[in-house]
Design a protein that fits this description.
- The complex is a heterodimer of chains A (359) and B (459).
- Chain A has 17 helices and 2 strands.
- With 359 residues, chain A is mainly α.
- Chain A has one domain.
- A two-stranded antiparallel sheet of chain A has the order 1-2.
- The longest helix of chain A has 28 residues.
- The relative contact order of chain A is 0.10.
- By secondary structure, chain B is of the alpha/beta class.
- Among the domains of chain B are: 138 residues, NADH-ubiquinone oxidoreductase 51kDa subunit (Rossmann fold, 3-Layer(aba) Sandwich), CATH 3.40.50.11540; 84 residues, Alpha-helical ferredoxin (Fumarate Reductase Iron-sulfur Protein, Chain B, domain 2).
- Chain B has 13 helices and 18 strands.
- Chain B has a 6-stranded mixed beta sheet, with no helix packed on it. Chain B has a 5-stranded mixed beta sheet with strand order 9-13-10-11-12, sandwiched between helices.
- In chain B, a hairpin with a 6-residue loop joins strand 7 and strand 8.
- The radius of gyration of chain B is 22 Å and the shape is globular.
- The chains are: A mainly alpha (359), B alpha/beta (459).
- Chains A and B meet through helix 2, helix 3 and helix 17 of A and strand 17 and helix 11 of B.
Amino acid sequence: MKILRKLFDSTRRHFDEGGTFGAFKPLYEAMENFFYGPATRTGTAPHVRDPLDLKRYMTMVIIALLPATLAGIYFYGLRTLAIIVVSYAVGGTIEVIFAVIRKEEINEGFLVTGLLFPLVLPPTIPLWMVGVGVAFGVLVGKEIFGGTGRNLFNPALVGRCFLALGYPSEMSAVWLKPGEGLTGSLLQWYDTAAVTGATPLGQAKLGEWANIGSLLWGTTTGCIGETCAIGIILGGIFLILTKVANWRTVVSSLGSFVILAAAFNIADPDRFGPVYWHVFAGGLLLGVFFMATDPVSSPNTNGGKWFYGIIIGTVTVLIRNLTGYVEGMMFAILLGNIVAPMLDEAVVYVRLRRLQNER
Amino acid sequence: MSQITKCEIQLEGKPADSVLEMPEPRKLFIPLESVRFSFDSVEVEENRSVQPGQVLARDLNNFSVPLLAPRAGKVKLGEIKNHIVLDEITQQEEEPYDHREDEAHIPQEMGSVGLKRYKLLALGAWQFVYDAHSSKLPDPFGTPRAVIVSTVNLEPYTAQGEAQLQKRLADFTRGLEHLQSLLEYQPIYLVMPDINSEFSRQLRESIRGYAWVKPVQIAPKYPGDNFAVIARKLGFNKEKDSPVWAMRTEAILAIDRALTLSKPSTVRIISFGGPMVKEPIHLKVMPGYPLKDILAERLESGPVRIIDGGVLTGAMVSEQQKGLTAECNGLTVLQEHSEREFLSFIRPGSDRQSYGKCFLSSFRGAFKERLNTALRGELRPCVACGFCEEVCPAGIMPYLIHKTLYSGELEDVEQMRVDLCVGCGMCSFVCPSKIDLRGEFVKAQEDIERELHAEEVQS
């Protein structure tokens, strides 16, 4: 590792102000701080700090996404990897450009967006579209609001929403059947023969209910990362245990989803399907565990999180069952993002009223 | 009132309970600034000889609290900036205090109680007393609602009542009696650590029959020992003109000395700990004791940071400071961080304790960690993870105050009750974005007092 250290030390002067690549200082610093923990010291009390930093915090999300990601690669072939690479490359470039323009440091939030975005895309998506989508998501969903920590919407979902509205046929008409056997689709780039026309939720609208086992394991059609329910649940529980995802959001959105879906099912069992089926089908779990819990775009207050979850769970059921759309997760979370600041406002108002009386 | 936080910080370098009596110094360097006081009004002249207990300077903004000479010696004023240096130190017995000349200062209606209280101020015992809610020096002639006496210091590396009270339990009990004689009917709450410990048992034994002392046990988790937190837990909210007095062990010992022997207390027991101290221990010293002599030979080699107080709330000792301050109750020595660890953020972390359970250490039991001054991450925008709110003992919303300070008006920040912040530093400690929340709030409190309440103070 000494070679790397030497490389950083010997090139540092080029990136300092006035150096040849002075403008790229954020990139240099990001790289150096990625490989070597920063040398920064505390300035005032408290003189010691907790070891958790934002890099580690974001890394936890990536670790939690691994089961779902690996399942995606296993079921839909090596091309999935290419989609992830494109997403990281294009989105990362935009992040660097903005950091350079703002003369700020590069933030870690993108590490998560760059992986979440491919997981909500269909495996057949053209690679250029991945680039366009992630560029739109990062640019409009995050950077114009001022970057990490200030974004109103989840950037990955903004990108997906853009693609879904702009290129509906590529985003919802063609799906890939999952690979089978020991190696799945791991040995192939992309199985063109396995193309089909509908996801379990799409078939459900026609009255065909997919096998629950295949929904659990992920041997079904759907977006890259949303099919393997078991992998998502494992990752989600990990995220809650590490305190990165807030359990209140998860409990309230899943709870409200289950209650409302059960009500629909009781009203008309033939048309609306059983509750457990709905929980495991489509993007609900991925959205609830990984998108709704994004701390920045969800409400900051715990009270707000409860209501936010209820809105997401309810809207998902309504869109899935009563509209022409097959899946409602994306719109539900974006809608939740819109109302999040209002929920916060209300909860904060109440809390401050209570605090006023404290002395 | 929210619950006491669940965050536990266990660090290496806790001072042992034994006390080391430091040798007599040859020179004393007494700083004119300490955490609460600045002794701007100097009352001695250059080259003048002073007696032990003589007033060197006063802080006119804090009820003229005096800075007393700990030893007899010769005054040097200009030798070191912001210090009074005492040269040619000799150890003499202090003259008992003679109060006649001061009687004019005492409110007539207070009678003998007023006299006693003035004695505490004049003999340097009053400087150990705090207003529980604001941490300022309370008015010695004011009427408290209650008094909190704490033998517990939960902040890592600070002086422990258990060490300070060795062989002095009788003095302590007598000090409590003196304290009670200053009051009318107000209760004294005696805060003790683990009720089952031997120290706790001795303490309870010694106050048996004192109906006016109410023992209180607090959970042994920082910042449960904070005076404001204890006061609010006991049901005392902040009220103007009716403060809650709070003090630690050293205050009671000083009160005893002042009212039993009529002598000033300058020598006291402080903690000396931290990972860079070879043998963490308690020291018997006096204000002005040369830092050089305390630190020499007692530290591990390498760059260090000296802190006046504990690691979470203490103040960094500057290069210019040469001796112990009048208020110092502990010195903490940390290693200055300089090493850059390869791929530190993806290390499994079974050796690092964290509030967020993102490290393998979550699978082990509690252990002591060797910490240094590393920020352990980079400064980032707030991502609203909510950790600060979870650990806050005051029940306020640190992230919201931070965002409002960034974008809003000071009035809005006041609405969010930044004044309830007790300055424990837990929010800064846990913040993954490494935001200096405590520093921001302390500054905001000062700004609010100065800009929004300036008129109130004047009127």
